[in-house]
Design goal:
The protein has 17 helices and 14 strands. By secondary structure, it is an alpha/beta fold. The strands form 2 sheets. A 7-stranded parallel sheet has the order 3-4-2-5-6-1-7, sandwiched between helices. The site of adenosine-5'-triphosphate has 20 residues, from helix 3. The site of magnesium ion has 4 residues, from helix 3. InterPro entries: DEAD/DEAH_box_helicase_dom, DEAD_box_RNA_helicase, Helicase_ATP-bd, Helicase_C-like, P-loop_NTPase, RNA-helicase_DEAD-box_CS, RNA_helicase_DEAD_Q_motif.
Length: 483
């Protein structure tokens, strides 16, 4: 394996790396760093926790030190927490440069951000939505000179998930220069390769870690088959077990909805577990505060939605529990990748109901590895089943009384207004559409019924004929016998 200096990295950066415990380049760094330093576009696909961030931060800092100006580099990433984490890596590694960075994410004050942008920071790290808002609404900054455009978690930025970034990306791409270096990184690039190539247009250098299994070797991947109703009891049992056996372990629990996230947190707290939550319905300040509490180890359990599935680098995380089986193998890869990072060991546990077995098969197909069953004392789980389920119900009632659903509706309306839509009009439109759909459904049903009737009648006709013939035949006979 080569060292950083043979890859062309300057001594001052090598010193900075050493201070962070980065002594030898990881494969993604070894392969992508020289190409980026040569001025090529680059697409890097390497497993979770393999040092992709430094693979782009280091060459950008080196180029910036040779020709410092602002805005030199724009980094886009799908989540706010990830934006802060990337900015921190730039700050730490770029300390000798007196680096000026600026973080542009939703949920924070726009005026402050606009002011910071106007001061021409060297590096801007942003989530696409908020940056596009600034571009649309302000002319106090421009990105005409940027040398580097980086998309971290590039496949997520391009796919049309529940948060769709494609429109915002278009706005951003329309204001950055065509002559630039584009760097795209993720642990799961391959499904979106074509779309990515349209962004990194200059014959990008493409590097993918060569390994059949798409999750890291140090990760022990387990599953537990459970009926839906026993899931929470398993969860409480597992956490109790891990806390008894390993006091210092931190655990991330992923679940599918914000509401579930909140309920699970309340429930675990009822059992005296130190739990905090992270989901997109929380105020941004709360999100940061909760993540900080978890990172510092004050709270050992984080319950999160997929907003925390990608990129977060928290070395103390020893266990990832999937409270729901992820619907997409890709999401599974990122979720379990929050543990077993940078050569450390970790465990992932996926709770699987009978309805999720096909999802597990899809996951195993993609990662090219089999999940092993995790054995649990079932009698221990059954002992706490009633208590856990009653506690959950109590938490649900408590949450309902705080108008969680109503808040969700208000948030939805706010988001629509921000998108320039009228929520009432949208609601009416949706109702109209529903009416049309229902009418069509009824119409189809009527046609279907009448076709069915006709078919039945046709089927019945030959039988009727047969019966008539039989009746005729028998009357004939009776004539002949003289009856
Ligand atoms: N060469 C290195 N040697 C040792 N540790 C490293 C090296 N490069 C990076 N690291 C550390 O490895 C950890 C994981 O790095 P990073 O967050 O960049 O992973 P990633 O590949 O982006 O993962 P993900 O796909 O989950 O985003 C970080 O704590 C980082 O400081
Ligand atoms: Mg990363």
């Amino acid at each position: 394996m080569s060292d950083f200096s043979s890859l062309g990295l300057s001594d001052w950066l090598i010193q900075q790396c050493k201070q962070m415990g980065i002594n030898k380049p990881t494969p993604v760094q070894e392969n992508c760093l020289p190409a980026i330093l040569q001025g090529r576009d680059c697409m890097g696909c390497a497993k979770t926790g393999s040092g992709k961030t430094a693979a782009f931060v280091l060459p950008v800092l080196q180029k910036l030190s040779e020709d410092p100006y602002g805005i030199f580099c724009l980094v886009l990433t799908p989540t706010r927490e990830l934006a802060y984490q990337i900015a921190e890596q730039f700050r730490v590694l770029g300390k000798p440069l007196a680096l000026r960075d600026c973080i542009i994410v939703g949920g924070m004050d726009m005026v402050t951000q606009a002011l910071e942008l106007s001061k021409k920071p060297h590096i801007v790290v942003a989530t696409p939505g908020r940056l596009a808002d600034h571009i649309r609404s302000s002319n106090t900054f421009n990105m005409k000179q940027i040398r580097f455009l980086i998309l971290d978690e590039a496949d997520r930025l391009l796919e049309q998930g529940c948060t769709d970034f494609t429109k915002d990306l278009e706005v951003i791409l329309s204001v950055v220069p065509a002559k630039r270096q584009t760097l795209l990184f993720s642990a799961t690039l391959t499904d979106t390769l074509q779309e990515l190539k349209s962004i990194a247009m200059n014959k990008p250098f493409f590097w993918e870690s060569k390994s059949e299994v798409r999750t890291v070797e140090e990760l022990d991947q387990r599953y537990i088959l459970t009926p839906e109703k026993v899931k929470d009891a398993y969860l409480v049992h597992l956490i109790q077990k891990f806390q008894d056996e390993h006091e210092d372990w931190s655990i991330i629990i992923f679940t599918n909805t914000c509401k579930n996230c909140q309920i699970l947190m309340m429930m675990l707290r009822e059992f005296d577990f130190p739990a905090v939550s992270l989901h997109s319905m929380m105020k941004q300040k709360q999100r940061f505060a909760n993540l900080a509490k978890f990172k510092s180890g004050v709270f050992k359990i984080l319950i999160a939605t997929d907003v925390a599935a990608r990129g977060l680098d928290i070395p103390t995380v020893q266990v990832v529990i999937n409270h729901n089986t992820p619907g997409l193998p890709k999401i599974y890869i990122h979720r379990v990748g929050r543990t077993a990072r940078a050569g450390r060991h970790g465990v992932s546990l996926t709770l699987v109901t009978q309805y999720d077995i096909h999802l597990v098969q899809a996951i195993e197909g993609q990662i090219q590895a089999k999940l092993q069953e995790y054995s649990v004392e079932e009698s221990e789980v059954l002992k706490i089943l009633t208590q856990v389920n009653v506690t959950r119900r109590e938490c649900e009632i408590k949450l309902e009384s705080t108008d969680f659903d109503e808040k969700k509706e208000i948030n939805k309306r706010k988001a629509m207004i921000l998108e320039g839509k009228d929520p009432d009009l949208e609601q009416k439109r949706r109702e109209e559409l529903e009416k049309i759909r229902n009418k069509r459904k009824k119409f189809k049903q009527r046609i279907h019924e009448s076709i069915q009737k006709k078919q039945d009648a046709i089927k019945r006709k030959p039988q009727k004929k047969k019966r008539l013939l039989q009746e005729e035949g028998s009357s004939h006979q009776s004539h002949e016998t003289g009856e």
